[in-house]
Amino acid sequence: MSYLAEGQCSDCGEFPDKLESLRIEGDGTLRLCKRCFSRARRETNWHAAHVEPAEQARTRRARKKAAPGSFTEDEWSALLAMHPGCAVAWLGDCEGPLHRGHITPLSRTELRPRNDIGNIMPICRRHNFAQRTKTLDEWLGYGAERRVREALGASNGS
Length: 158
Ligand SMILES: [Zn+2]
Ligand SMILES: [Zn+2]
Description:
Layout: E1 20-23, E2 29-32, H1 34-42, H2 46-50, H3 54-66, H4 73-82, E3 98-102, E4 120-124, H5 125-131, H6 136-140, H7 144-152
Antiparallel strand pairs: 1-2, 3-4
The chain binds zinc ion (2 copies).
One zinc ion (ZN) is lined by residues 86, 88-89, 94, 123-124, 126-127.
């Protein structure tokens, strides 16, 4: 999960003193704090709820590579400073660390999505996984994208 900051637990998003490595079948290694690590080892259905399936993750990385545009860590930090929480927090039940989500998913090539900061939103893991390939308006109803863009403010352009 390269969208996490250095030293951050992939699950809870906290910054522990020490991270444990959990190997994921076909998808490298997750870095977890002690608490999340032991939970992951204990709960048999943990993977389905917390880890993007390997094939889906591979496809997502390939699309990211193919999409035009890019953004810097500074731009991401500036966006977080403007909006330090999940962009769709009004839905409630936010869970997991903040991901670098796409307002228009990169899978929607017919909409010509870009991988630059104007298309990026902080979104919690649960809501990022829930959005899947939908635009915000498709997912949450007309006006949702506008609401998010307004909340993200000037640093996110339009
Ligand atoms: Zn954790
Ligand atoms: Zn959320």
